[in-house]
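Suppose you are handed a protein chain with no further information: no name, no annotation, nothing but its sequence. What can you learn? This example shows the usual starting point.
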Amino acid sequence: MIPLIALAGLIILNDWSMPGGGPFALAMLGSTLAFGTVVVWIPRFVVALLRSDGRPGLRRHWIRWASAPLMGAAVIGLVYFDLPFTTRFALSEANLERFAQTIASGPESAEHADQWVGLYPLTSIERIEGGARFLVSGTGFLNEYGFAWSPKGLPPDESHTGYTHLQGPWYIWESRW
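A reasonable first move is to predict its three-dimensional structure. Written in C-alpha cells, the prediction is:
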C-alpha cells in the first residue's frame, strides 16, 4: 500500500502545482487512489488494533503503519500552504520571464510552437499588448489556465478571458470555455 499512497500523493502534488489544476483525468486518478487507500488502510488498522494477535505486529512494524498517515498529512499540509504551485513557479519564473520578454519584443504575427519553459509545458503562446501570455498544457477541466506577463499592469480584457494577479508582472490567465 505504501507505493500506492506515494503515487497518489505525487499525482495530487503535481495537480496542485499547475495553475488551475492539472489534467482532470489524472486528478481523478490521484483522488481515487487516495480515497481507496484510506478505505483499505483504516479497517486494516482497526482490526489489527482490536485483535490481541494483531497488536504485536503493529508494534513490530510501526514504521509501515505510521507511513501512510504521515504521507497523507504531508500532502495535505503542502497543498494547504500552496507549496506545490509556489515552488514550481519559483523554480520556473526566471525562464518564464526570459521567454515572455522574447515573445513580447518579437513581431505580433510570429507563430510559436508548443514547448517546455522551466517546469511547464506551454501552448497557445502569444504576444499581448505590453507583454505575453501562454497556456499551460493540460490544465483545468473546461477552462484552460496559464500565465500572462504584463509589466504595465492588468492585461487588456477580452471575452472568455480572466486574469488573477499572481506577483509582480505575473498573472494567472484563465481562458474560459
